[in-house]
Write a structure and sequence with these properties.
homodimer; about 300 residues; alpha/beta; Rossmann fold; N-(1-d-carboxylethyl)-l-norvaline Dehydrogenase, domain 2; 2 domains; 8-stranded mixed β-sheet; 14 helices; 8 strands; globular
């Protein structure tokens, strides 16, 4: 298996490294050459332009784009398509709205290029644990990209779901469930902190880990986040690049998801309410996805500790 | 370690069996003698009355009550206290509101009996995987009951949290998070089923299991429930014995838990909305807790399949 890979961010770089280590020949390109240089040391073949990347691929090209959804992905797909010919394959791994995948599929079809949308979950831990892949597109060609899927995913961790858009859709639903799980953990930790007797929050989340009904990876990461010495310095601001895409997904299927609605409202709420809960969600997102958190200055932090 | 144990329901019977297998001498009593007979075959010492149970215990008595919260637990604690003396220990493992544990603690103190409230999680799987124990009460005597905790819990799965009430409180918060997790899974499965292309629900939940961000025991059980041939016969009615206790807990701490509020509203809603989601929650509760589900008659089921 050989493929070109565009976009070496947190997710992309780990994916390329995992594939390279498992025998996939990956020609990797990133806009900023530093990341390309870095991935070359992890076993990928560096390319410092789209032309160079295409030139280093075999006759039948497979290209994977892994960029932020929206303009960046749209522009890159248009650019890459200029270099592809009938029968080539384009895989998009962005966290994109499924209707955009349908649009990308139409553009590809016009050129005879085969399109797959592939939702990817695993965050910064995917390099080690494997990436979950949720794939949509032309089933008759799925076998052509399956070796890359096997390299990326853990056992049982990839699946084909249906026509173009199905992969991004299933990934969006995964993220909707993730929002609700995080909201549940945030509410739980908030309630624990409101009790008349002081409850050791980390003792509670860690005692739940081995055998309780709510044992889960996000619970493990909650315990980990609560144990960091600077946890209370984290600003209660929950970033999210996917919130609009998830709301559009829910609405597009006429969906009913009231707990998800609560979770999105909390993410948008900039009031001083639910501070511990928001801080926890920001901290856990940092644990699994490497998503940036803001930290209060050390002065502010000292002042808080003195209170 | 020796103790008397009252209440051999789904949870209690498994707990007694696990303790007996791990070297705790358990004298077990249940109102209906059939369950007592059954547990005698699993290594416990049977008792067919409170008197008999007390008589078979050593001089310093430790008694564990494991009955439904409310009248059944209140009555039994009053009854058992007649047989206990200063320095004896009473542990209550019901899913009870923490203020009731505080009341039980006061009644016990009047007689010089040491009270512990112990929240227990693990459902029908606890016998095999161990039970999570969340304990409140008099810390200076905690070591006296710790051997039983070690026998019941998996490694790292029990902890002391604070004065009487703290154990039931932490267990209630665990259940609040559980409600939100289940609601999130139900919303996710509902959305998957609303997509324009048919999505294989079980394929989606199972591909999420090995490495996705939402991997969790409840997700595993969702996959298991969706795989049962009679899944679609399950009535969309979610039983819950704990809903009032959880709402009282949340309100008592002035708590903010809007996703939990959504989950409780869905459980109370008897309309024909969110049918698949309600069915899923009922089915998963059956998977982890052995909670009863109603099934439509086979005729109704056939009719549904013909549609």
């Amino acid at each position: 298996m050989e493929l070109g890979f565009i976009g070496l961010g947190r997710m992309g770089a780990g994916m390329v490294e995992r594939m390279a280590k498992r025998g996939v020949r990956v020609v990797a390109y990133n806009r900023s050459p530093e990341k390309t240089k870095r991935i070359a040391r992890k076993g990928a073949i560096p390319a410092y332009g789209i032309d160079e990347m295409i030139g280093k691929l075999p006759k039948r090209r497979i290209v994977w784009t892994m960029l932020p959804a929206g303009q960046a992905t749209d522009d890159m797909i248009n650019e890459v398509l200029k270099h592809l010919k009938r029968g080539d394959i384009l895989i998009d791994g962005a966290n994109d709205f499924y209707e955009n995948a349908e649009r990308h599929d139409r553009i590809c079809r016009e050129k005879g290029v085969i399109f797959f949308d592939c939702g990817v979950s695993g965050g910064v831990w995917g390099l080690k644990n494997g990436y979950t892949l949720m794939i949509g597109g032309d089933k008759s060609h799925f076998k052509d990209i399956e070796p890359a899927c096997r390299a990326l995913a853990p056992k049982g961790g990839y699946a084909y779901f249906g026509p173009a858009g199905s992969g991004h859709f299933v990934k969006s639903v995964h993220n909707i469930v993730e929002y609700v799980y995080l909201q549940g953990l945030a509410e739980g930790v908030g309630l624990l902190s409101s009790f008349k007797h002081p409850i050791d929050l980390r003792k509670a989340t860690s005692v739940w880990q081995p055998a309780s009904v709510i044992r889960s990876w996000l619970l493990d990461l909650t315990t980990s986040a609560l144990g960091k010495p600077d946890f209370s310095d984290i600003e209660p601001k929950i970033g999210s690049v996917t919130i609009e895409e998830l709301e559009r997904t829910k609405n597009a299927v006429g969906g009913y998801a009231p707990a998800f609605d609560v979770a999105t409202a909390i993410r948008k709420d900039t009031s001083g309410n639910f501070v511990l809960g928001k801080r926890l969600i920001a901290a856990v997102r940092n644990e699994f996805g490497g998503h940036a958190v803001e930290r209060s200055s050390s002065t502010a932090s000292k002042r808080r500790n003195e209170r």
